[in-house]
Design a protein that fits this description.
The complex is a heterodimer of chains A (about 325) and B (about 300).
Chain A: H1 2-39, E1 43-48, H2 53-66, E2 71-74, H3 79-87, E3 94-97, H4 103-111, E4 116-125, E5 127-130, E6 139-141, H5 142-149, E7 170-174, H6 179-189, E8 200-202, H7 205-214, E9 218-222, H8 224-229, E10 235-236, E11 238-240, E12 245-246, H9 250-255, E13 262-270, H10 277-289, H11 293-297, E14 301-302, H12 305-323
Parallel strand pairs in A: 1-2, 1-3, 6-11, 7-8, 7-9
Antiparallel strand pairs in A: 3-13, 4-13, 4-14, 5-9, 5-10, 11-12
Helix pairs in contact in A: 2-10, 10-12
Chain B: H1 2-13, H2 18-50, H3 56-60, H4 73-104, H5 109-121, H6 126-140, H7 148-172, H8 176-184, H9 189-217, H10 221-225, E1 231-233, H11 246-253, H12 259-295
Classes of the chains: A alpha/beta (about 325), B mainly alpha (about 300).
Protein name (chain B): Phosphate transport system permease protein PstA
Family (chain B): Belongs to the binding-protein-dependent transport system permease family. CysTW subfamily.
Organism (chain B): Natronococcus jeotgali DSM 18795
Chain lengths: ~325, ~300
């Protein structure tokens, strides 16, 4: 009996320590949980286009300096990937988009009770680039561009123009989940013609730059900001839409001369998320800053002040509706 | 006779040759140096690139598209938060499993089967664990994509086999005579484990766990699989916050158009990651040394 009590004494002590430790663990995890629910409001989750990403990153960074407790996250998923897997599935509050939302995506959002609100935030000049060594090319007509990028189109440079080298075209373009792909498809190829499928498709614009730098016979396309950061290592091709060659730049995009490849960039905000004060603040902040140098610094054309006021007005209407 | 033996030696071991002796020594030295030189080259290369970029502002600012304003804070805090949670998850699970396998389980086929499985799990590529995390935590349990919670559990599963195996080794190295002595004094199995086995094995367990954490902090593939965001602003404010981690942020910066990102900012990130990693490893060494002094 005596032995049993002495033997059980240390056991008892350690069991008590164990219980205490378990208690501390449990209460701290409960505390964690309560802060989890309290903090739910301080999240703004964004997915979508890699073209719009730099704009949203610049604005997100400025926003977080003013609102340090809000956790803003941005994923690069491509416009379509963002709508399909994140925004319309109710996982994100905002979607970056380099094209308008498609009907199928509106339906998908509707099935999950999400109302997408469209806001134009910048204008981009989609840029076709070639290697700087490719001295035979400075300008392309839209027809030539279509011949290069359509399915069963040209395979060699000489197929388009006999004076051009008899070398195979190496094409680098946006992946099919990308809004850039969709926009290019619509603007250059039109609805009836399919985009070529044997090209190097990527969501990483950097890969396109590297591909085009690497080969004299390569061609690629992406948002203007990527070209404006690498003007020496790749060459932008001017586009002739029937009115002569126009080179891509923020000026020609803003004046509307650079057709058909200048395009509006959007963000879509889920109306339901506007009930959340962090998303509301972020959306307001975004609309205000979209008309400033923050946008031109990353290589896009900011919206005009009229557009900004129109955006803000529409936003406030929706905010009032959600909270009213 | 002497001539005979030397001839025999010649035929069996080859001619005595100082040149070969020296050559082989140099060859072995060169083999050793490859590792050290490449590490030194790497460190020197990134350190030189990071000069002027790695400063206090870099460590305390959020990311930004302008390389001169870009910061690392959310990724740094995110990595540390993930790591602490991983430690909380893997330590009890790993040590518990190791104690069961070494002290309680018999030598039957089942135990052998479990141990074989754990050894195999340790070799499964990390991207596969990422898929597991995506399927289990994000889709099935719906804990939200890319949160600290999901990231920590996914990477914890990844390093758990390593923790179990190193804890097993540590427990196995405790001499059986000490256990027998404890039983001889009338101690129960639990008392023996608590008072004899664990204190003796603890330095080994700690070292193994912390080294595994060092591996965890460098993991990128599982985080990409669970859809951790490209960029996060602001410090995570709960376990369900979206989280970015240092290797992920570095990977993302490497795809930015500006060359300042590809060299300066990425290098500053790499140096920060290496410094955190090396501090973790040195903590492991410190803990091991301390426990060893206490034990003796």
């Amino acid at each position: 009996m005596a032995r049993e009590t002495t033997a059980s004494l240390p056991t008892g002590v350690s069991r008590r320590t164990l219980l205490a430790a378990a208690g501390v663990g449990l209460s701290s995890s409960l505390a964690g949980c309560s802060s989890v629910f309290a903090a739910e409001d301080d999240q703004v989750n964004i997915a979508g286009s890699s073209t719009v990403f730099p704009v949203t990153e610049a604005i997100g960074s400025a926003f977080s300096e003013e609102h340090p407790t809000v956790n803003v996250s941005i994923s690069k998923t491509g416009t379509g990937g963002g709508f399909g897997n994140f925004f319309c599935a109710g996982r994100t509050d905002v979607n970056n988009a380099s094209r308008e939302i498609a009907d199928a995506e509106i339906d998908q959002c509707g099935n999950n009770d999400i109302t997408p609100l469209e806001f134009t935030v910048a204008t981009d000049a989609l840029t076709v680039v070639v290697n700087p060594e490719a001295d035979w090319i400075d300008c392309l007509t839209v027809e030539e561009l279509r011949e290069i990028w359509r399915a069963d189109g040209a395979e060699r440079w000489s197929d388009i123009n006999e004076d051009w080298p008899d070398e195979e075209l190496e094409l680098y373009g946006a992946a099919t989940t990308s809004g850039t792909f969709d926009y290019f498809n619509e603007a250059v190829l039109g609805e009836d013609i399919n985009h070529k499928s044997d090209y190097y498709a990527t969501e990483r614009d950097r890969t396109i730059v590297q591909g085009v730098q690497g080969s004299e016979y390569a061609m690629g396309y992406f948002g203007f900001s990527y070209y404006s950061e690498n003007p020496d290592s790749i060459k932008a091709v001017s586009i002739d839409d029937g009115n002569g060659c126009v080179e891509p730049s923020t000026e020609t995009a803003m004046s509307g001369e650079y057709t058909p490849l200048s395009r509006p960039l959007f963000i879509y905000v889920a109306k339901e998320s506007l009930a959340d004060s962090a998303v509301r603040d972020f959306a307001r902040f975004y609309m205000e800053r979209a008309a400033t140098d923050l946008v031109s610094d990353v290589g896009y054309v900011p919206i005009t002040e009229d557009q900004r006021d129109e955006n803000l007005e529409r936003l406030e209407e929706q905010v009032a509706e959600v909270n009213g | 006779m002497a001539a005979d033996t030397s001839e025999a030696a010649d035929s069996e071991f080859g001619r005595v040759s100082r040149t070969k002796d020296t050559a082989f020594r140099l060859l072995a030295l060169a083999a050793t140096l490859v590792g050290i030189v490449s590490l030194a080259a790497l460190l020197a290369n990134v350190s030189v690139d990071a000069v002027g970029w790695l400063d206090w502002d870099f460590l305390t600012s959020p990311p930004h598209p302008d390389p001169y304003e870009a910061g690392f804070l959310p990724a740094l805090v995110g990595s540390i938060a993930i790591m602490l949670l991983i430690a909380l998850i893997t330590f009890p699970l790993g040590v518990g499993a190791a104690i069961y396998l070494e002290e309680y389980a018999g030598d039957g086929y089942l135990t052998k089967f479990i141990e074989l499985n754990i050894a195999n799990l340790a070799g499964v590529p990390s991207v596969v664990y990422g898929l597991l995390g995506l399927g289990l935590f994000v889709t099935l349990l719906d804990l939200g994509y890319g949160t600290i919670f999901v990231a920590a559990f996914t990477v914890a599963l990844l390093i758990l086999p390593i923790v179990i195996i190193s804890a097993q080794e540590a427990i196995r190295s405790v001499p059986d005579s000490q256990r027998q002595a404890s039983y001889g004094m009338g101690a129960t199995k639990w008392q023996t484990i608590r008072n004899v086995v664990l204190p003796r094995a603890m330095p080994g367990i700690m070292t193994g766990t912390i080294l595994a954490l060092g591996r965890a902090i460098g993991e990128t593939a599982p985080l990409i699989m669970i859809a951790a965001p490209t960029t996060v602003f602001g410090v995570p404010n709960s376990f369900l916050s979206k989280v970015s981690a240092m290797p992920l942020q570095i990977y993302n910066w490497s795809s930015y158009p500006e060359t300042e990102f590809q060299y300066g900012v990425v290098a500053a990130g790499v140096v920060t990651l290496l410094v955190v990693l090396l501090s973790i490893n040195s903590v492991a060494i410190l803990i091991r040394n301390r426990y060893q002094q206490d034990g003796s």
